[in-house]
Amino acid sequence: MDLPCHPWMAMVILPLLLLLVPLTAAQLWPSCGESGDYKSNSTYEANLKLLSTNLPKKAASSTNLFATDTVGNVPNVIFALALCRGDSNASACEGCLVTAFQDGQVHCANYKDAAVYYDSDPCMLRFSNKNFLATTVNERMLVIVSIESLMVNISTRADSFRLMLFTLLNSTAQSAANSSRRFTTSRLDVSVSSLPTLYCLMQCTPDLTADECTACLQPYLQYTLKYMDGKKGGRVLGTRCSMRYEIFPFFQEDPMLRIINLAPEVPPINSTMPLITVNPPPQPQSQSPVAAALHGRNSRRRALWIIAAAAPLLSIFLCAILFVVWIRRRRKGTEILHDQAAANRPEEDELVWRLEEKSSEFTLFDLSEILHATHDFSKENLLGQGGFGPVYKQWIGTLKEIEVMQ
């Protein structure tokens, strides 16, 4: 069956397709806690709604694009932290955080503890029923690794890239910790063996001291060397500090720091680093059971959410197509009836003319002509009663009698 093409049909289908775009266009990484669930229409949910209204505005109005807040009383108290990237603006920050609250409640439905990180959107959010604001511990950590690798198979080039990567991260971490906003963007202006230029961004929450920021970022160097060696890009995300590097400039404006000297050496990797979630996993044999379980649970939730959101939209889409097909068929049927009626009119006219030709004494007139000839069936023109009806006198060229058939 050929589906009809109609402008109205496009007006119905296009909005439905646009609703599906966010499902695949924006990548986010939710991290759902294990401190219990809240019930729908509960006091905790009401407090979370109030928090989602106030905190984005509070962060956007801050010079550091950072804010914390506490809402409610035990056992329904909620602690929250919101941070936008240092190269963002107030409008983008507020919009991102509003979306983060929505995504957190969708991907971590009814979880009392959740954190939301984004691929390109300039913010992160965490809320919890536990007072994580009272400590500087960097929780809910995620390692995001690029799926593309550099061509560094030769051992000398591989060693050079590791040295470049360590130099980039180490220098950027020091600069971020010593800045007033705890934020720095950088570029490694050192050309080594035709390897690409590296760009980096590091940020801590502005409420940390310089030493606390340094301590937060220090393990990121180890995580990067362990999970991202030879990769084109990657990032380490946490509620207190974050890092990202790429082989292309991904931040706004020019780099705040240009690095022109390489470090003397790369320190050995610490084999006792705590387990964290890696997305995607490096290799099945090297991924920890804990990290695999966390990643698998989040992936299943994301898939279920996409299916649940797409199913009703697909149903509406199909119903719209069927409705348009039905309308077009109905219109086509009406047009056919009209065409048949029009085709029958010449036959009827021909029959009338044949009747008139059979007898010269039988003449047919339109009703308007009869009304004019009889002066609207005036009694003054009535002559009598004929076989078919009353007989009137009339004047059309010559004096004649006209019999009106009833």
TrEMBL record:
UniProt KW Signal keyword: yes
Claim: Amino-acid biosynthesis is one of the keywords in the record: no
Keywords recorded for this protein, A-Z: Membrane, Repeat, Signal, Transmembrane, Transmembrane helix
Gene3D superfamilies registered for this protein in UniProt: Gnk2 domain, C-X8-C-X2-C motif (3.30.430.20), Phosphorylase Kinase, domain 1 (3.30.200.20)
InterPro entries per the UniProt record, alphabetical: GNK2, GNK2_sf
Signal peptide: 1-26
Record Pfam families: Stress-antifung
UniProt superkingdom: Eukaryota
Domain Gnk2-homologous as annotated: residue spans: 26-132, 142-250
Transmembrane segments: 303-327
Name of the protein in question: Gnk2-homologous domain-containing protein
Originating species: Triticum aestivum
